[in-house]
Amino acid sequence: xxxxxxxxxxxxxxxxxxxxxxxxxxxxxxxxxxxxxxxxxxxxxxxxxxxxxxxxxxxxxxxxxxxxxxxxxxxxxxxxxxxxxxxxxxxxxxxxxxxxxxxxxxxxxxxxxxxxxxxxxxxxxxxxxxxxxxxxxxxxxxxxxxxxxxxxxxxxxxxxxxxxxxxxxxxxxxxxxxxxxxxxxxxxxxxxxxxxxxxxxxxxxxxxxxxxxxxxxxxxxxxxxxxxxxxxxxxxxxxxxxxxxxxxxxxxxxxxxxxxxxxxxxxxxxxxxxxxxxxxxxxxxx
Length: 286
What we know:
mainly beta; Immunoglobulin-like; 9-stranded mixed β-sheet; 10% helix
């Protein structure tokens, strides 16, 4: 015969269940990490975008992601994510074991719909930062002419053609300078290119720009093979030893896509003349 619970036993059991459930909820909330995506001045830490995105194509799980810097104030469980825009987004979750600066990879989810620049908001705790990702036309894949890079040039002295991706493109308003830049070369085989173009009116205008102008220059670096047109790993304008001519052929203010080419002479890391030819670039200016 089954035992029968009396009213007091049932009441005690209900109280225990409620108390246990509340304890679990409070414990979970207490273990959530706290921190920010911004520095002490309230400026968003720079993000690093990896991979190339095409409309209608699933981004690579291990090759298409965003690296974000997080200043962790309180350790614990975290969830960092973006909104979903144009059919895709990014997220990461886990546990912060160490306070201070942590680097996290946000993996992509979904599939881009349209080949347009796509704006995202990255959120962690109470902080939020923006990021724009250019989605390329997947029709290029079918034609076999996919833009696996968006800049290239040939160094005729070495007989080598270098290629890469401009990932950080903006107008430095205080100096009226357009900056097109690649992330730093971090491992063997990596290359990095930075182009500064002085804009007389602060507006991107198709035309010819030359590196013998004080605010226009090109710096190119490889991971282990020195650089063209740079000193100490940084960008410097060239006033002598050759001139590179940069031609902005097109700029669309709506899509913010800029296209152009460049060629000419500059100095390599041996301080010797190096001729650049067949330089081309396409970028989205943020």
